[in-house]
Amino acid sequence: MECDSGTSYLTFSIHEVRFAVNVKNVREVLEYSPLTRLPGKEDSSQGIINVRGTCIPVVDLGLVLGMAVPPVGESAAILILEVGKGDGAFLAGAVVDAVYGVANFSTPMIDPPRFGPVRPSEYLVGIGRGRDGFVLVLDVDRVFSADRVGNSEDLVEAV
């Protein structure tokens, strides 16, 4: 995923860290509601939700990204994201602490994820510079890859 000039991103937070995903990947944002748990799934797999008759798997994005998970607060939301392309595309939900809105970042406003001798995070597209500080721009396809949340096909087939 490349950061084009003037690309729009949905911004949100997990554990007070601000993140963003390309709006092209966002189907909708839902108010957090209780999930149906699935037995035998990875820790990051929270369960499933019914969105207008469609069963969608939901993961806790904080757990997937290796962050501690705070209790679900009043501003928590579920992002419904389109993952992958073509025949392999599927919808997945991601629990986040709060959603801020849409921000536009031009290419010069996003730096590549370089941290000196530290290996950059595989799921980062870059680091955006916004009015309120840094925004970590995520690649949805990498975040939902098989080595992060288990086999994506298993996640979808479970529902």
Structural commentary:
- By secondary structure, the chain is mostly beta strands.
- It has a single domain, classed as OB fold (Dihydrolipoamide Acetyltransferase, E2P) (Beta Barrel), CATH 2.40.50.180.
- The protein contains 4 helices and 11 strands; from the N terminus they run βββββαββββββααα.
- It has helices at residues 61-64, 140-143, 146-149, 152-157, and strands at 7-14, 17-22, 26-31, 45-51, 54-60, 77-83, 90-96, 98-105, 110-111, 124-130, 133-138.
- The strands form 2 sheets. Strands 8-1-2-11-10-9 form a 6-stranded mixed β-sheet. Strands 3-6-7-5-4 form a 5-stranded mixed β-sheet.
- The radius of gyration is 15 Å and the shape is globular.
Structural features:
159 residues, mainly beta, OB fold (Dihydrolipoamide Acetyltransferase, E2P), 5-stranded mixed sheet, 4 helices, 11% helix, 45% strand, globular
CATH fold description: OB fold (Dihydrolipoamide Acetyltransferase, E2P)
What kind of sheet is the major sheet? 6 strands, mixed
Strand content: 35-45%
Q: What is the top-level CATH class?
A: Mainly Beta
Strand order of the largest sheet: 8-1-2-11-10-9
- Could you say which structural class the secondary elements and strand pairing correspond to? mainly beta
Fourth CATH level, the homologous superfamily = CheA-289, Domain 4
Which architecture name does CATH use? Beta Barrel
Mean pLDDT: 81
Tally of separate domains:
1
Order of helices and strands: EEEEEHEEEEEEHHH
